[in-house]
Amino acid sequence: IVTVVALVIAKLAMNNAEKAATAVVADDDVRDDDSVQIEEVVGRASDLSNGEMKECKVDGRSVLLVKDQDEVFAIGAKCTHLGAPLKNGVAANGRVRCPWHGACFNVRSGDIEEYPCHDALQRFDVQHDRQSDELVLRATRGELRRNKRTPAAVRRASGDKRVAVIVGAGTAGASAAEALRARGFAGRVLLVGDEEHLPYDRTKLSKALTASVSKLQARDAAFYAARDIELLTRTRVTELDAAAKRVTLTPLGDADAAPHVLTYDVALVATGGAPRTLPIDGFTLERVHQLRVPSDAAAIHAHSDAARVVIVGSSFIGMEAAATLVKRAASVDVIGMEAVAFERVLGVDVGARLQALHESHGVRFHMRRTVARMEDDGRGGVAAVVLDDGTRLAADMCVVGAGVVPATSFVRGVELQRDGSLLCDASLRVRGVDGLYAAGDVARFPYAPLAMDIRVEHYGYAQTQGAVAAANMAGTAAQCTAVPFFWTAQYGKNVRYAGHAIGYNRVIVDGDLDALSFLAVYARDDDVLAVAAVGRDKDAVAAAELLNARRMPPASAWLNLSRRKPAPDLVALLAATQNE
Question: Cβ–Cβ contacts within 10 Å for residue 500, how many?
Fold first, then answer.
């Protein structure tokens, strides 16, 4: 079953007007021997079942063979996100899914179907000799050398007077800008961001405090210039008038620069979330940090050496920061409102086990507590954090990870939701507003498995939504139907999560919590909404595909287990669906 989201990054089809635009060269890394033709026998078709993968070497390079609907295809062997071996993931529904972070690629074309990633996979020609049953792969040496390829795109055409404005140069916005050109949009494209940097991976800030911004960026300035994407950094959209289809652009850092008003045909709000502040005395003291931009990460690193660190917030940002800082700080104390860390998303049992993992590394917890105030050291810096029960925690530095709120205060003519988000339809068009779309943290959209409108704050999902919105902005119908997939790393242990479990009332753990090798099933009554896995990556990605196809077993399948009734084998169940 190919989901509607697959349409977003499907093979490019351009109408006559779009063909008039200049195509972008996808890869200028050329070597003298790249044109050498390679032909090798890579196996037999009968050795593979539908949904089965096999990695092989061709001219010393890794290639992935995938059988789907009785045909064998050959694509790049490593995920283009961080290089995970795709053979360790799953193949189903005409695509392969990465075992680490859930990116999906079409087996026939190598095109991106779900994120996180930036480039498509290379696709290779493979022929089946039906007489000998041999599979013969043909490719150039250059194609084999490049595991990935940048999707083709168009540039701006002089005759196309349309204007697309993308407000927010983060994950969703950058994805949308690329997808607009890949979808054949040949009008003017502006990508507007208030930071000085090119778009970068913000999720890495809590995991690698000292990483340079250049290492967090997937694309350089030349990439955007080659696609005629006007990247306006240090520029803030101070007003978006939805009724008039008009934005006000205000340059930052130049007192003499006047705001500029621009009319658009289509616009995307992708401004992400602003860190939630605390309405307490002392919140603005020095060395009280929130983690949003690279300068925040650098300051946290600089102030944490041998410091007494207090972290407010016991969910993903706070806990990733704790795992990073405990290695260099004198002490790390975490304050959380829940009974255990991660409780809201992962439940009490899983949260308690991950909290114990942190405690084994020296992190101290103060749960079911809130912050009453922060005390001044007499020089304008933080000296202590005082809790609601009067407990005083000495602090040389404080990191506040209390979540985010949608950054939409500049939007006019649209009724914001209670949390500040923009209510969208499945195409991510803001409901009742012509030409305006939203993606990422700011978008609230219909999620069929829960039969309700939800908001998702995940890196990969923001990329997916940016691409979906861009497809519709360019005139190609697409809907956001993907099952969310996210991850976190704690002391070398990776948690993979597939689904969205608002309103779950049952958590069933299959495996060994103590050994950190388990699959946790989150259900509402008997309907499985999501899973979390540690040490069982393949089960997590198989669950994502089963949830996507509405083929997930009921929660009761994990109850009253015995030798005669083992826990469901999600990988085997998924494989079985490919041969039906």
Answer: 25
Q: Could you report the per-residue pLDDT of 192-238, keeping only the tens digit for each?
A: 999 999 999 998 888 888 888 989 998 999 999 999 999 999 999 99
Question: Sheet harboring 235-241: ordered strands across?
Answer: 260-263, 246-251, 235-241, 411-412
Q: Where is 73: in which H helix or E strand? A: strand 71-76
Pick from 574, 572, 570, 410: nearest CA to 496: 570
| Structure tokens given for 60 | 């010393």
Determine the pLDDT at residue 29: 66
Q: Cα separation of 235 and 167, whole Å?
A: 10
What is the sign, positive or negative, of the torsion defined by CA atoms of 172, 178, 184, 190? positive
φ, ψ at 452 (rounded to 5°):
-155, 165
Buried b (16+ CB within 10 A) or exposed e, 438-455: bbbbbbbbbbebbeebeb
Reported as a single tens digit per residue, the pLDDT across 277-326 is 999 999 999 999 999 999 999 999 999 999 999 999 999 999 999 999 99
Peptide bond into 116 cis (omega under 30): yes
What DSSP character marks residue 14?
A: -
Q: Which residues contact 383 (CB under 8 A, 6 or more apart)?
A: 375, 376, 377, 394, 395
Nearest to 49 by CA among 64, 76, 69: 69
User: Using the 8-state DSSP alphabet, how is residue 125 labeled?
Assistant: E
**Contact indicator for 367, 351 with CB cutoff of 8 Å:** no
CB count, 10 Å around CB of 91?
A: 27
> Which pTM does this prediction carry?
0.92
Residue 481 pairs in a beta bridge with none
